[in-house]
């Protein structure tokens, strides 16, 4: 059976911009909770937060990214996602190390494309680690396999290359890795490319715009920024600058909800602090893509 190709615009706002929420963080989210409490962080605590975040924030997002490990089944069972918000399933399996929450990534075979599509998914996402000391062939093969799985199952393919240091822990140029990853992986057929903000959003406006223009030149098709590593207060500007240089929006989590994790009034804070941040980012995207 041939399944029709799906456009990534199914994940976009009416403006054509992407304002997508990520709640697929795993051990990194556990660490955020652990920083706010003395008792061990349970899996249930992580799941409950993700379900609450999906229910509270999805009415304002054009799409939401959910992981299988902690949240997919619970979010589906709770019917927590607003009908107007597209579902993205994280299709990556993470292996940690003593120094990294995510040291290796593989396609998660427990995330069956046909099954999640039947449950409402419109897209799959794959994290890809770009290290300067590793053979590009492995990354290229991983992305090629992932894109083909998505196409076969009528799902939008999203890749998220992130710049990482060499295995031996040596020094490296983080921004150089962002650009090298885009040149290597940005033309392999993924429907949407998710990139780190150059300078982690801490450079000048012109430095960020220039870096984002390099990503636009390297990537075939639409691309969006993520918020990890960018100060939350700087992220709206980073999104605006990225869109001015050719990006189409964001797929982000930490800049929206990280500050409320572990708060004694977390449910209320999601409804106020996080909703306000997400709505502001939606306005930034709509304004930027309409110019």
Automatic annotation (TrEMBL):
Keyword terms, alphabetized: Lyase
GO annotation terms (biological process): 6-sulfoquinovose(1-) catabolic process
The name this protein goes by in its record: Sulfofructosephosphate aldolase
Residue intervals passing through the bilayer: none
Protein family according to the UniProt entry: Belongs to the aldolase LacD family.
PANTHER family: SULFOFRUCTOSEPHOSPHATE ALDOLASE (PTHR39340)
GO MF annotation, one: 6-deoxy-6-sulfofructose-1-phosphate aldolase activity
SUPFAM superfamilies referenced in this protein's UniProt entry, alphabetically: Aldolase
């Amino acid at each position: 059976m041939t399944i029709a190709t799906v456009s990534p615009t199914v994940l976009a706002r009416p403006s054509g911009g992407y304002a997508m929420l990520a709640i697929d963080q795993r051990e990194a989210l556990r660490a955020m909770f652990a920083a706010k409490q003395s008792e061990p962080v349970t899996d249930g605590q992580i799941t409950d937060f993700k379900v609450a975040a999906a229910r509270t924030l999805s009415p304002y997002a054009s799409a939401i990214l959910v992981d299988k490990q902690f949240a997919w089944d619970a979010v589906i069972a709770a019917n927590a996602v607003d009908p107007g918000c597209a579902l993205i399933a994280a299709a990556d399996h993470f292996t940690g190390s003593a120094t990294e929450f995510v040291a290796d990534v593989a396609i998660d075979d427990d995330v069956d494309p046909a099954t999640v599509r039947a449950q409402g998914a419109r897209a799959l996402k794959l994290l890809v680690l770009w290290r300067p000391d590793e053979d590009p062939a492995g990354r290229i093969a991983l992305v090629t396999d992932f894109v083909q799985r998505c196409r076969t199952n009528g799902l939008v393919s999203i890749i998220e290359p992130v710049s990482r240091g060499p295995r031996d822990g040596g020094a490296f140029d983080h921004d150089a890795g962002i650009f090298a990853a885009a040149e290597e992986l940005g033309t392999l057929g993924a429907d949407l490319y998710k990139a780190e903000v150059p300078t982690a959003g801490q450079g000048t406006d012109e430095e960020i715009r220039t870096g984002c223009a390099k990503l636009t030149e390297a990537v075939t098709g639409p691309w969006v920024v993520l918020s990890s590593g960018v100060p939350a207060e700087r992220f709206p500007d980073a999104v605006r600058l990225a869109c001015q240089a050719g990006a189409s929006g964001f797929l982000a989590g930490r800049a929206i909800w990280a500050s409320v994790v572990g708060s004694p009034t977390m449910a209320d804070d999601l409804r106020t602090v996080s909703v306000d941040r997400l709505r502001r980012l939606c306005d930034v995207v709509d304004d930027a893509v309409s110019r």
